[in-house]
Protein: Nucleoside diphosphate kinase
Amino acid sequence: MTDVQRSLVLVKPDGVRRGLSGEILRRIEAKGYTLAAVELRSATPEILAAHYAEHEGKPFYGPLVEFMLSGPVLAVVIEGQRCIEGFRSLAGATDPTVAAPGTIRGDLGRDWGLAVQQNLVHGSDSEESAAREIGIWFPAL
Ligand code: IDP
Structure:
């Protein structure tokens, strides 16, 4: 059965700043997923309010939005069989300190002692989120 999906991936400002965009795209392509869209973007408060609506009111929400506005992000749409789950697995756990070696966050991330986990990447967590997030970042797709 084919289950080709699209997922919204962001290389967050820490990843772009540290020059890891290429390494992260390399890992996505090495896994076998296709890049359907790639664009260096500046997030806006409006985009982030929509993107992170589920986290509004949480203690890390303000610092998260501030962090995401601190520099450009690489917005990416990936495509492939079960790529939503597959990219979450490539990314690793939210906390880069405990993310498994071999994952993007586990190999390339660490705790910087800041109010928000600067964990390099975002990946949609369900088909519903992917459709919603692709609509936010790439309304023309
Ligand atoms: P995910 O990115 O692994 O899916 P979410 O729970 O959706 O994690 O959280 C969104 C983002 O908010 C995380 O990637 C991280 O940057 C930040 N975040 C989540 N939980 C915490 C926390 O407990 N402290 C600080 N930052 C957090």
Summary: The chain has a mean pLDDT of 98. The chain is about 40% helix and 20% strand. The two ends are 25 Å apart (CA to CA).
